[in-house]
Amino acid sequence: MTYVVNDSCIRCKFMDCVEVCPVDCFYEGENMLVIHPDECIDCGVCEPECPVEAIKPDTDPGLEKWLSLNAEYAKVWPNITAKKEPPADHKEWEGVEGKEQYFSPEPGTGN
Ligand code: SF4
Ligand code: SF4
Q1: Fewer CB within 10 Å, N or C, the chain?
Q2: Does any ligand 2 atom lie closer than 6 A to the CB of residue 21?
Q3: Residues near ligand 1 with C-beta < 6 Å?
Q4: Where is this region: Disordered (predicted)?
């Protein structure tokens, strides 16, 4: 089992989650974060930290696609362990449904 970041994170990227992860397994894309499924120890500490409920256990239904995406991009995006400023327009994207279309495969800058 692992925890997975879904499209609720896209363009929100508050990064409250990264500071609590004991094994530093978050990776940063241009407009969302992912969790490395092989590094996550399933502690669940990050789940309640996310204000937009973007972090889910992979036992939740319908997350297969996001689990694959997390696994794929955790290998190529930079590690992130410290909170940064969210995008200036993040409030406008909070709670917006169907943000998958805005996913960017480009990496973030990490830390
Ligand atoms: S707290 Fe939630 S929205 Fe923010 S970066 Fe983490 S997973 Fe994404
Ligand atoms: S469940 Fe624990 S180990 Fe996994 S990403 Fe969240 S804080 Fe990190």
Answers
A1: N
A2: yes
A3: 5, 9, 12-17, 33, 49-50, 52, 54-55
A4: 84-111
